[in-house]
Write a structure and sequence with these properties.
- The structure holds two protein chains of two kinds.
- By secondary structure, chain A is mostly beta strands.
- Chain A is built from no helices and eleven strands.
- In chain A, strands 2, 4, 5, 9, 10 and 11 form a six-stranded mixed sheet that branches.
- In chain A, a hairpin with a 5-residue loop joins β4 and β5.
- The radius of gyration of chain A is 13 Å and the shape is globular.
- By secondary structure, chain B is mainly beta.
- Classes of the chains: A mainly beta, B mainly beta.
- At the A-B interface, β4, β5, β9 and β10 of A face β4, β5, β9 and β10 of B.
């Protein structure tokens, strides 16, 4: 059974700092991995989708990497801003598209 | 392009009552998902539709939960009767095909008293 773990559970950083969020999964037989952002009381916003054949994806200040063999992904946020404060969720996609989520990392960026 | 629509946004009911949630996916998206997100947890898949057929409902508590997508477009998720542990956010998502990027609606926050 696939399990997804996100470390740390919470993170507080000063504005401008570069940071890394970690995601690990137990079964390397995944089709893709997706990173989401969730603001309080809101739904999920897709940030990056990495297909199983890819090593990384970039969007603006965000970069996500995938190492299937070791069961790990990282989300790198450059030059963090207070507006980046949210919960970040990692999810791995199976053969039929269903996503299995971690519990998330709650990020707080202090001005 | 309009996103995934869900209603209602909030619902408060007494235990043993029934409740229904509605979802309209992004136009043209064949795959529709319902997830349950309990406070402090990541979303958990309840049911996945491909057009109007069920692909995966292995984690749906079928004694009280039901879902349908009759015309392959919008979908309804029902709980009857509700239990205290059903208090959660119910998220609907859609994708153009099963293994493609999923887009989520704003969710329905259910409180069972």
């Amino acid at each position: 059974k696939q399990e997804v773990t996100q470390i740390p559970a919470a993170l507080s950083v000063p504005e401008g700092e570069n940071l890394v969020l970690n995601c690990s999964f137990t079964d390397s037989a995944i089709y893709n991995l997706q990173w989401f952002r969730q603001d309080p009381g809101k739904g999920l916003t897709s940030l990056l989708l990495i297909q199983s054949s890819q090593r990384e994806q970039t969007s603006g200040r965000l970069n996500a990497s995938l190492d299937k063999s070791s069961g790990r992904s990282t989300l790198y946020i450059a030059a963090s801003q207070p507006g980046d404060s949210a919960t970040y969720l990692c999810a791995v996609g199976g053969s039929q598209g269903n996503l299995i989520f971690g519990k998330g990392t709650k990020l707080s960026v202090k001005p | 392009e309009a996103g995934v629509a869900q209603s209602p946004r909030y619902k408060i009911i007494e235990k043993r009552q029934s409740v229904a949630f509605w979802c309209n996916p992004i136009s043209g998206h064949a795959t529709l998902y319902w997830y349950q997100q309990i406070l402090g947890q990541g979303p958990k898949l309840l049911i996945q539709f491909q057009n109007n057929g069920v692909v995966d409902d292995s984690q749906l508590p079928k004694d009280r939960f039901s879902a349908e997508r009759l015309k392959g477009v919008d979908s309804t998720l029902k709980i009857q009767p509700a239990k205290l542990e059903d208090s959660a956010v119910y998220l609907c998502a859609s994708s153009s095909q099963g293994v493609n990027e999923q887009f989520f609606g704003p969710g329905t926050r259910l409180t069972v008293l």
